[in-house]
Amino acid sequence: MRVTREQATAHCEKIFHRFWDHQLRRVKEQAESASRDQTRPTRHSGVPIVWNDGPVTASVLSFVCLVRHGETPWTLTGQHTGRTDIPLTARGEHQARTLTARLHDMHFTDVFTSPLERSRRTCELAGFAIDATIDPDLLEWNYGDYEGRRTSEIVDIRPGWRLFNDGCPNGESIEDVVLRTERVITRVRQCSGNVLLFAHRDILRVVTARWLDLPGREGRRLYLDTGSVSILGYDHGQNEPAIRLWNECP
Predict the structure, then answer these.
(1) pTM above 0.85, yes or no
(2) Active site annotation includes 69
(3) How many CB atoms lie under 10 A from the CB of residue 156?
(4) Of the residues 71, 140, 172, 218, which is catalytic?
(5) Of the residues 69, 71, 147, 200, which is catalytic?
(6) Partners of 241 in the beta sheet?
(7) Per the CATH hierarchy, to which homologous superfamily does domain 5-248 belong?
């Protein structure tokens, strides 16, 4: 029986959805189990990781906290904001300040931030500027000719365009972004404890996909709001990377 490309693609996506649903169920089951067992010893003295249904005690394994920068004028208008260095709005600065209470008890050994102002300012207002290292690999996707354009405008001139499949002319492809995220993950895994990253929507989506050993383009299935907090970690060991928390907003 001959299988068409469309059938093969549909089959692969079906397998991915099954894997993703299973992964999320495992994360929630782990969270519920941990919340019932608040007495187990932890490396970080019971630092809380919050799941939507309640507090979770951190495991002995280190975790990585992802923070998307606060709101900007272009996130409000839906324009692709790659290397354009624009500031936070007043609401974006408020979002950043609210992160202080959420993050200050997590005991990070290392903090990294994108060099762009919207990320660095979020890091500063959250109270981590002194400890932060600038990491150019955390720069947002280079949208090239599509910088500043809305998706609807791009599709008008290039029907069917999808960022994670097609990339951007005179900018980056998904393969380019994956290379940067692989370097980020390598550095993170060399750190001795919990790590905090301040960066941007699409680069963090690709970081997460690669953390889970999924193809980088599967980051398109993840959504991140401005000022959100997400946590990557492990299940039973480092050979079982997992999402501990996703897109928690202030």
Answers:
(1) no
(2) yes
(3) 11
(4) 140
(5) 69
(6) 234
(7) Phosphoglycerate mutase-like (3.40.50.1240)
